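Appendix C: a fully annotated inverse folding record. The material below is reproduced so that readers can follow the format used throughout the book. The structure is listed first as tokens, followed by the designed sequence.
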């Protein structure tokens, strides 16, 4: 591709007040208003005694400005200044400067973050009522819980401390902050965030997990999950508290168990005849032997966890074993064992496949890291908590917009939705005082964009029944 024109030094000018660089925010923020986001923020988040008198003024539109900026790809507070460029002020009312939004975020405390967390849950329910956010929810819903460590710098960042992160299969000590997240998903859709909480970097992964699991199960029920709810997590969450929370809420669990003497004894009692090969999605058969090209095998045994405690639980211990790659030429196979504890009723191979799909929560983390959580910049822990929760709200909003867009966009990553749907340039015109957006001709995703446009702009809410 070659440049067609020859430009002079003054041929580029930033002087058009009618150009909009993120026209996709029009249907996205229309969806936010249709689901009551601004009213929820105004009703539930209250800062009664701000340190700066004007700090908490107009709280709802300031947070809505932040969420809109995150939907457009903002990964720091300065990036939301994009919303004040060109013709954006003609499209949106109540768009605030980054410094003003930053002042509000620094007013947040732990209690205010809990208020914003309740907005996250209530808005998720509103999105689920407005769109088919959890297709298949009457059948089975998965509650996945996990944490991550976001690297930060600076000695004065509140809550930053050294914690362990797994990089390339190795435990590495890094300084950062540790968000804990719970997601909801089904077999038919990408997960959405039901709860999120920022913690210090040195905090154990499982701290606060039980209460978050309880809240996530309640959110799933309110969103239409009338069938089975399965709680999945890794070894940090295979604890008494998490299992008890799942059982009390009427949910099933599938949690990795930490290897200890009792678990090792149970694994040793599995007879050799009980091991069966497992077919993972995408596996192929060996044309010569007819077997699956994988050395993974699974078996199960009854196991009583947390013995001699009031939370003693008997369920299935399902173990996956693979040959240890460090000893390829061993005379006898040397196996590595990966046990998880579950009370689901699936066949052993299917239960193993279902449990391994817990890794889908990593796609949510990847979306956040590729967007709003690329940086956690503020020195105030409360401001960072509000930032993380706003990122979760923006993630759910984009996920709902993708579903209304249709097709593959219902499962697309947030970066894909921003590139194809949100970050599209347009020229705002007002012939006869009628606003019109002139978008690029031959846009590759015109049909998808117009589908979202018609599903939001033309949407008519159902009228209440009259007596």
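Designed amino acids, in order:
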């Amino acid at each position: 591709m070659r440049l067609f024109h020859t430009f002079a030094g003054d041929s580029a000018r930033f002087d058009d007040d009618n150009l909009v660089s993120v026209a996709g925010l029009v249907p996205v923020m229309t969806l936010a208003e249709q689901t009551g986001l601004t009213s929820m923020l105004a009703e539930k988040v209250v800062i009664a005694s701000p340190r700066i008198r004007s700090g908490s003024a107009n709280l709802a539109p300031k947070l809505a400005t932040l969420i809109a900026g995150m939907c457009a790809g903002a990964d720091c507070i300065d990036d939301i200044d994009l919303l004040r460029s060109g013709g954006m002020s003609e499209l949106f009312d109540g768009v605030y400067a980054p410094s003003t939004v930053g002042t509000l975020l620094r007013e947040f405390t732990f209690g205010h973050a809990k208020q914003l967390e309740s907005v996250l849950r209530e808005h998720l329910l509103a999105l689920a009522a407005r769109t088919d956010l959890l297709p298949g929810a009457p059948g089975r819903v998965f509650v996945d819980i996990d944490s991550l460590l976001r690297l930060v710098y600076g000695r004065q960042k509140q809550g930053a401390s050294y914690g362990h992160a797994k990089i390339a299969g190795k435990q590495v000590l890094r300084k950062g902050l540790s968000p804990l997240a719970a997601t909801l998903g089904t077999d038919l859709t990408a997960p959405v965030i039901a709860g999120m909480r920022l913690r210090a970097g040195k905090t154990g992964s499982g701290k606060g997990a039980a209460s978050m699991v309880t809240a996530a199960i309640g959110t799933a029920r309110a969103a239409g999950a009338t069938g089975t709810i399965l709680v999945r997590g890794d070894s940090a969450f295979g604890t008494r508290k998490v299992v008890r929370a799942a059982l009390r809420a009427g949910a099933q669990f599938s949690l990795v168990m930490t290897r200890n003497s009792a678990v090792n004894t149970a694994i040793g009692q599995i007879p050799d005849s009980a091991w069966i090969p497992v077919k993972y999605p995408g596996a192929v058969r060996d044309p010569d032997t007819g077997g699956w090209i994988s050395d993974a095998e699974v078996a199960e045994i009854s196991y009583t966890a947390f013995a001699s405690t009031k939370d003693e639980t008997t369920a299935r211990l399902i173990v996956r074993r693979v040959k240890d790659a460090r000893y390829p030429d061993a005379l006898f196979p040397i196996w590595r064992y990966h046990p998880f504890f579950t009370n689901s009723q699936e066949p052993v191979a299917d239960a193993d496949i279902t449990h391994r799909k817990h890794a889908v929560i990593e796609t949510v983390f990847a979306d956040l890291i590729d967007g709003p959580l690329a940086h956690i910049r503020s020195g105030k822990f409360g401001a960072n908590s509000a930032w993380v929760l706003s990122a979760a709200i923006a993630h759910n909003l984009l996920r709902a917009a993708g579903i209304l867009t249709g097709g593959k966009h219902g499962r697309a990553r947030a970066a894909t939705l921003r590139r194809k749907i949100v970050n599209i340039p347009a020229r705002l015109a007002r012939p006869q005082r009628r606003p019109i957006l002139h978008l690029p001709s031959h846009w590759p995703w015109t049909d998808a964009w117009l589908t979202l446009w018609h599903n939001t702009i033309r949407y008519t809410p159902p009228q209440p029944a009259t007596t």
